Amino acid sequence: MNFFNSAYEGTPPWDIGRPQKEFIQLAENGEISGRVLDAGCGTGENALYLAHLGFEVWGIDAAPSAIKKAKEKAKERGITVNFLVSGALKLQLLQNKFDTVIDCGLFHVFSDEERPIFAASLSSALHPGGKYFMLCFSEHEPRSYGPRRVTQAKIWAAFSKGWKINYIREAVLETTFGSEGVKAWLSSISRL
Length: 192
What we know:
Blueprint: H1 2-7, H2 21-28, E1 36-39, H3 45-52, E2 57-61, H4 64-77, E3 82-85, E4 98-104, H5 114-125, E5 126-137, H6 152-158, E6 163-175, E7 178-191
Parallel strand pairs: 1-2, 1-4, 2-3, 4-5
Antiparallel strand pairs: 5-7, 6-7
């Protein structure tokens, strides 16, 4: 946790200063609906983008420095998002239900032991039929920097009970490392 909080004292490579293209496309395709939770929102670019489109959005991150920056951006832009310092492994503490949860680079930081805890936490925050969209590093990314890689098999395993995987497709996670971004998976997963 201290790593992420101190990373946000500067500008970490995943903080690109704009929403991720994959989430813009999801919104344009009508895949995002209802109340939205951005789990692991960082400095809030994806949450702010969706709120600007008219969605009611909450953004949570365990790093206080990230949430501070997100709140400052929201105020500067005149956009309302409920940003909170909160951990994604205990979403039930929000005492709220959402229709859509987005995740840009959160799932891949969890250990194998934490992933089932996260899936249960996520289930507590999503309405039945609600969708979870996850953008995470893929095992096809050859460079050695960044978080551990995630295989499709690991995604299937984490969401094998109580979930329906709608799709897992190749995607790009944009970073400040270069214009081509990194190889990623974009998953659409529905709570049963």
